[in-house]
Every structure is written in structure tokens, then in C-alpha cells.
Amino acid sequence: MPLIKKEKNMTIAILPARLANQIAAGEVVERPASVIKELVENSLDAGATSIHIDIDKGGVKRIRISDNGIGIAKDELTLALSRHATSKIKDLRDLEAINSLGFRGEALASISSVARLTLTSKPNAQETAWQASAEGRDMAVTIKPAAHPDGTTIEVLDLFFNTPARRKFLRTEKTEFNHIDEVIRRIALARFDVSFSLTHNGKMIRQYRAAATNAQNAKRVAMVCGQKFVDNTIEINCQHDDMMFSGWLAKPSFSRNQNDLCYSYVNGRMMRDKLINHAIRQAYADLLPADTFPAFVLFLALDHGEVDVNVHPAKHEVRFHQSRYVHDFIYSVCHKALIENNQDLDVFSQENTALNAARPIDSSVENVQYTRPDYVQSIQQVNERQSSHSSYRANPSSASFGANSVVTKSAMDNYLQLMTPEVDENLNQSVNTEPALFPDRPRVEADFFLAVEQHEFGIFTYQGKLRLLSLPILALHVQQCKVEKSWQPSEAKESEGLISQPLLLPVVLRLSEQQINAAQIYQSQLILAGIVLTINVNNKAQVQIRQFPALLREQDVSASFTDIINELLSFDNVSGSEQIILAIAKVLVTQSYSEEQAQTLWQRAKNSLSSEKIESILLNSVVVDLTSQIKQIKSMINN
Q1: Residues in a beta bridge with 196
Q2: Can you say whether residue 432 is alpha, beta or left, with left for phi > 0 and alpha for psi between -120 and 50 degrees?
Q3: 78 in helix, strand or coil?
Q4: Of the candidates 376, 358, 370, 357, which has an alpha carbon nearest to the alpha carbon of residue 414?
Q5: In contact, 212 and 193? CB cutoff 8 Å
Q6: How remote is the C-alpha of 59 from its chain's centroid?
Q7: pLDDT value at residue 180
Q8: In sequence order, what E strands does 523-624 have?
Q9: Strands of 622-623's sheet, edge to edge?
Q10: What pLDDT was estimated at residue 312?
């Protein structure tokens, strides 16, 4: 027989304050570790440089946190224990760019609703300290004078004493302490400038002294993650516009069987963000053995207005306004560092690198689209921000080449085309169906070169003579023609020159004084070629390349730029575009050819060069004189 439920009173009423606070406590206070996290973050927001955590019985019996922060005035103690009371934000504009760890004003009220809480505080300007006490039930706050140095101490007793159902879900004392220990370890990595101490049952467990230098920072990382971790890491420090990405990234050889050394932070806030973790895991991609995890301590700092931290009850996840841009930035920095610093790796092919870059993100990551059109859209968003926010512009103190580093409309419109590997249409055509350049030749055009010697010279017959043709010289004519055609102005381009491709990460190079001078002298030619760079005002030998020609997208940026500068130095004077076109063409030339590549090069030459040009190249080839060789053979036969 089915049970008949008695209808409840369905009238709407405002919840009592105590009940509302206990509901909120279900999100804020999960276990003793979450209490400590909230209270320590409050201490950090108060400007504390020394924080002491003292707990008993895994934090269930007692939690006591003392700091030397700015303190709370007597008149605000009662208000501090009320819901939605905070000093972190004042209006909606503050919520749009949160620069503090706490901001909701729920922590103290939620904790005091499920425990006996005592708050003692003394601001520097206040002569004496005052103490506020509240516990469960009606949460009535009592104020009385107390003895206390500058700063604040919060004591939490008998957690969940009035909610026995919640208390049943707590684990053993050891388990709860391990969670607390992990929280302190994470926070200690976030703030090297603050000293922390952790005491459990009267015994000092952790003590982290404040660090001021890189060496001291590394020492704290070693205390938290182990010295072996520090010995097997790559130190990262990369800045791009207003984003700074730094920290320690473990080499693939230091893989873990569990993800116990994965620490990421956004603006000093510890994170377990899916987008960040995916970008880092993707950077390791094929470098880690199966069923293993990377290890890292990484910090991302960016404009507070570019990240929304108000998306998760425990603030472990954030939402980036330009999620793809941030994801690719993290991926690129990590992947480049891993490849450059791992000596055990074989050289990865460009196809594998491109495949990893296009690998989709887990569908559980929200608000992130990973198709190429969306990437173009993200570049457009960055461009729009560059136009409206000074924080996205190039450093005004830097010596810039180009009117500005904002992505041009033409570059944006062509971004899909730029990121797609170029396909040579000539290779899709049948070589035997094309008309022969010289009809009187008995051989088919596909076998124009009889052989290739030393991977550099093609052997062919022309006008009854055996000849040698330099394949790099033939390739130079083909590439020069290709660059010249790309140089011609069209409706899709705003001005004459090559299409410029913005680099996701600027490439930093060290050049000689002569090369730096050349970059300054040939400024106009470099701009026409699509090369946008800045010179470091603090280090004149260092340049930062921000955009590069689309034609060279498959080339190494550092090596290509150096070759172009050296080519320009070899010219007596550079007055027009001819020299820069020739310099770029030389970068595209391959120096070694197989027989198949030589035949393909010949087909491309026929399709791109005029008949007069090809005939001139063939006539200028070297005639092979076989007279002496024939005489030697005859003498050998006669003997």
C-alpha cells in the first residue's frame, strides 16, 4: 500500500538567521581544513606577515589562528560576525575585479553558526584589544575587553557541536589533520613573503619562514614538495602583455603515480581549475608514461578584471574572460619549456606539435571552444582590448617598430589561412599531363633531372650537352617569385607588404650590437615584411618579436629572423623592398634535396617562372666536360 504523504504548509517565509547561516555553512564549512582555509585567507587579506595555526584533535576540538594583521576595530567586531559583512568589496565595480582572497562575507558567520567562536583583535591605532564571542543557536555576540598584541586571534571550539549529523561525516583525527596540512602547504606556496607555523596537539609540525629571494623561495618549495622535486624541475618565468606565468615545472622523468604535487595559483589564489590543469596536461601530452601525473608549482598573474572568481562555492575554480587565450598561453609556455629542457626527447615533428595544439579540451571544461574559428575570435577579442585598455598595449618605454602591436584587421581575417599548412597545388597535378617546356626533348618532364648529386646538384641534358644545375639556386628563384606575388597589394590587404601573423608568445632574442643597429636601420623594410618587434630599453642586446611573416610560419622564428638580419647586413644599401624579399626567399630555400624533391622543385619552377627565366637559368648552368673522362676510358680499353 503506497504511503500517503501529508501536505506541508507551502507558504513562503524568510528563513531565520540561524537556519540561513547553517545552510551557508554547508558550502563554506565542509571540514576543519575548510575552516582553516577561510580564516588564514582572512589573515592574508588583513596584511599579516606572520600566521600561527594551532589545532587539537584534527581541528575538531580546537582551531586557533593568530596573525599580526591590521586587526578589527571594536565597533566592527559584532558586524564582522554577521552574514554578508565584509571589508573586501563595497559595490558592483569591486565585484568585477576582486583582488582579495575573501569577498562574500560569509565565513565568520557560517563558522560561528556551527561552532563556538571567539574573535580577539587589536588594531595598531586602538589602545586596547577587544574580544567578541558567539556560539551556535541564536549566535548572540558578546563584547568584552581582552589582552592581545596588534593583530587578530580567532579560536574555534567544538566544530559541529550543534549539528551532530554533520559531525558524523568527519573522518579520523589523522585524516582530518592531513587535509589541514595540505591546505597549509598550498597556502605556504602561494605567499612566500609570509611565515607560517602549524602546531597539532601541542607539537610543532610545520614552520615556514618568510622568503625574500629566489633561493629562499626554492627552499620553501623544497620543504613543501621535497628537494628531489626542485632538483628535477624547470624554472619558468614568462610575461606576455599583462599576464605573468612563473613557477616550477617538473621534467617528464619526474612523473608521479598520483597527482599529489599539482599546485596552480591564479593571482595568489590556490586553484583546482579544469582549464589550467588541461593546458598543463596537454603540454606534457606524449611526454609522460601512461597512468602517471605531472608535478608542478605554477603561478598565473593577470588583470583582476580578466578573471571571475565568484563561480565556485569554495573558490577553487575561476572563469577567464578570454579562456582560450589563457589556455594557449599556459600550454605554449609549458610545452616549450619541456621540449627545450628535456635532453632525452627525440625532436618532435611539426605534425605532432600541431596535432597536440589542436587536441580538444575535455567537454567538462565550460565556456571554452576549441575550433580554429573561435581562436580567431579570441584573437579579435584581444585586439579589441588592446584598442580600449592601455594594459594590453606594448610597454611605452620600449622602442617599438610599427605603429603599434595591435593585430591588424587583415591579419585577423587571414588567421585561419595562416594557421593552415600550405598545400602545394602543383603536387596534386599529374606531371605527365602538363605540356613540355621544350617539345623537342625525348624525355618526359617528370624525369627532367637524370640524377641528383650530393643532394645539391641536378644533372640534366640541354642543347645536346650534359649540365649541372644548383638546386638551391633554382629554389631561390622559385621562392623569390613566391614572395613577390605575396607582396603585391590586394583588396584584402590594407597596404603593400606581407601578411603579418601575430605570435601567441613573443620570441625573445639576444643579438649583437651590429644586428641591433641593422634592425633599427632597416626598420621600414622589416615592417613591410610583417616583422613587428621591440627592443628592451634595459637590455639593448635583447629584442622581442611580436609578429612574423605568414610565409615563414613553418620556420623557426629565432633562426629565420637572425638569417634575415644577416642577409640585410650583407647588402651595401637597402632602399626598397627588393633586398628584404630576397632575404626572406633565402630563408625559405632548402639546401638538401632528394631526387623526388628535385623533380617537384622543377615542376614548381615551370608553374611559377616565365619561360625566359627558366631558359636563362638552364643556359647559366654548368656544362659537364666529359672529354678528359672519355680519353681515360679509351686508354684503359686500349691497354
Answers
A1: 51, 208
A2: alpha
A3: helix
A4: 376
A5: yes
A6: 38
A7: 96
A8: 532-535, 542-549, 622-623
A9: 451-453, 457-462, 465-470, 622-623
A10: 67
d(CA 392, CA 303): 10
Decide the pairing of beta strands 262-266 and 296-301: parallel
Q: Spell out, as residue ranges, where the chain has pLDDT lower than 50.
A: 1, 344-446, 490-493, 574
Within 8 A by CB and 6+ apart from 407, the residues are 379, 380, 382, 383, 386, 502, 547
* Residue 596 one-letter amino acid: E
Quote the CA–CA distance of 514 and 281 in Å, as a whole number: 42
Residue type for position 204? M
Write the pLDDT tens digit of every residue in 419-459: 444 444 443 333 333 334 444 434 444 468 888 888 788 88
Q: State the pTM of this model.
A: 0.59
Q: Are strands 50-56 and 195-200 parallel, antiparallel or unpaired?
A: parallel
| Closest-CA residue to 544 (of 408, 402, 422, 434) | 402
**What burial class does residue 129 get, using C-beta atoms within 10 Å of its C-beta: 0-12 exposed, 13-18 middle, 19+ buried?**
buried
Contacts 24+ apart (CB under 8 A), 361-366: 361/275, 361/278, 361/282, 361/327, 362/274, 362/278, 364/274, 365/274, 365/275, 365/278, 366/274, 366/319
In whole angstroms, what is the distance from residue 309 CA to residue 42 CA? 16
3-state SS of the chain: helix, strand, coil percent to 5? 40, 20, 40
Give the torsion sign (CA, 104, 109, 113, 119): positive
